[in-house]
Amino acid sequence: MTFIWGAPMLDIKNLDLKYGQSQILNDISLTAPVGQVTCVTGTNGVGKTSLLKAIAGRHPFSGGTITLDGTELPPGRAALAAKSGVGYVPQGREIFPTMTVEENLETGFACLPKGERRIPDDIFDLFPVLADMKARRGGDLSGGQQQQLAIARALITQPRVLLLDEPTEGIQPNIIQMIGRTIEVLRNRGEMAIILVEQNFEFAFANADHFHIMQRGEIKTSVPKSDADREMILSALSL
After folding, report:
1. Domains of the chain, first to last
2. Which of 28, 174, 213, 219 is disulfide-compatible with 15, CB 3.0–4.6 A?
3. How far is CA 197 from its chain centroid?
4. What phi, psi does 146 have (nearest 5°)?
């Protein structure tokens, strides 16, 4: 499938989300274009992970719309979101510890037609360590290896938008660099939009094309990287 570089893949308008009576997200609007990394950042507890869960269908939103490539996604339908093209790499990775690396990857097949249920060779080009560890249990991998597995598993589903929630958290520097190179490769293919939630300023600033800065469940600042000021982004992360 061919997409137009820079065209909106994901369009969120006036999104509200509640946990019980608590308002977590308030009137969130943003777009994520094909071939770009859209970074959502801010301090802990401002609603970044809740936003990704709403997109991934893991938590129902109470107002607004989420549209993927022209099709509106209903709230709280995780399986439908995944089959529609939302690939989600959650904070904490959530790999299956007693399943092998290969079996973890194969869980992504549930989103695919039977004729497309295979592990593409380029998965192991992106993450060579996984090729050597196919038979190892997921729980025996290091944190960095598990993160690679979680990203690879999401890519198996052939996503049109890839959600990355704090991919550098607790990861050693050499793996952080590798994840950055992987994001660059995926961006340059022009086949998906990428939404990156990240508090590691240097990683976010190096990889993002557009910044959305959140405070208290709202997007307070939206700015393309070309207009972004390092000190302004740093200041927003310290509020």
Report:
1. 8-237 (3.40.50.300)
2. 28
3. 7
4. -65, -35
Across the beta sheet with 63-68, the strand order is 22-33, 8-19, 63-68, 71-73
Q: Are 88 and 56 in contact (CB under 8 A)?
A: yes
Cα 101 from chain centre: 20
Nearest partner of 33 among 4, 65, 9, judged by Cα: 9
CB 160 within 8 A of CB 81: no
> Which residue is associated with the tokens 């989600």?
88
pTM of the model: 0.93
Q: Looking at residues 161-168, what average pLDDT do you find?
A: 97
Q: Determine phi and psi for 127, rounding to 5 degrees.
A: -130, 75
What is the SS3 assignment for 155? helix
Beta pairing, strands 63-68 & 22-33: unpaired
When pLDDT is cut at 50, 70 and 90, the band that residue 31 belongs to is very high
Distance CA 224, CA 237 (A): 17
| Secondary structure element (H or E) that encloses residue 84, with its range | helix 78-84
Which residues fall within 8 angstroms of residue 136, CB to CB, at 6 or more apart? 100, 101
pLDDT band at 176 (very low <50, low <70, confident <90, very high): very high
Count of alpha carbons within 13 Å of 164, Cβ hemisphere only?
Answer: 33
Q: What are phi and psi of 197, to 5 degrees?
A: -100, 120
